[in-house]
Amino acid sequence: MDGLLLTSPAFSNKGNLPKLYTCDSEALAPPLVWKNEPSSTTSFAITMHHIAKDGKKQVYMVLYDIPSSQHDFSNSKKNIGIWGSNTHSKELGYAPPCSKGPGPKEYIITVYALSKRQGNTLMAGLSMDDFLEQTKDQIISTSTISVTYSR
């Protein structure tokens, strides 16, 4: 298969997000693996979000400036990049989904291949929208998976 490919050893694309990665259990960040990035990739970024019924974007993870030598992420690898802000806590890092109300909710996880390392050019704590705006000319490839979770 050609092009950047994002997968997870814990769930499949369009599958169910295991409870382990939500506020209903251990609240661990989901494990992710990516491959087939363009040769000009110098760093990666990861985002996870959900669009609520009211149309607002709920952001659970923003992680950027991941070295191009890194091809996976798990809860045990918390120091591989710069954490952005989520919309659920004042702390930088992964905020587990904590869906309100019954019924399945869709969560979108994206990995970005970037043509530039951000290093000191981007400060920690950027929102997903700010990160995407500041790197829009550096994104050379993306891959997305979606999962659902129901309480």
Give me the secondary-structure category: mainly beta
How many distinct beta strands? Answer: 9
Low-confidence region ranges? none
The largest sheet, given as strand count, sense and whether it forms a barrel, is: 6 strands, mixed
Number of domains: 1
Fraction in beta strands: 35-45%
Would you state the CATH class?
Alpha Beta
Give the mean pLDDT. Answer: 90
Straight-line N-to-C gap? 35 Å
CATH topology descriptor = Phosphatidylethanolamine-binding Protein
Helix-strand string: EEEEEEEEHE
The appropriate CATH architecture is Alpha-Beta Complex
Tally of individual helices? 1
Strand order of the largest sheet: 2-9-8-4-5-7
Kindly provide the radius of gyration, computed on alpha-carbon positions and rounded to a whole number of angstroms. 15 Å
Task: Say which CATH homologous superfamily is assigned.
Answer: PEBP-like
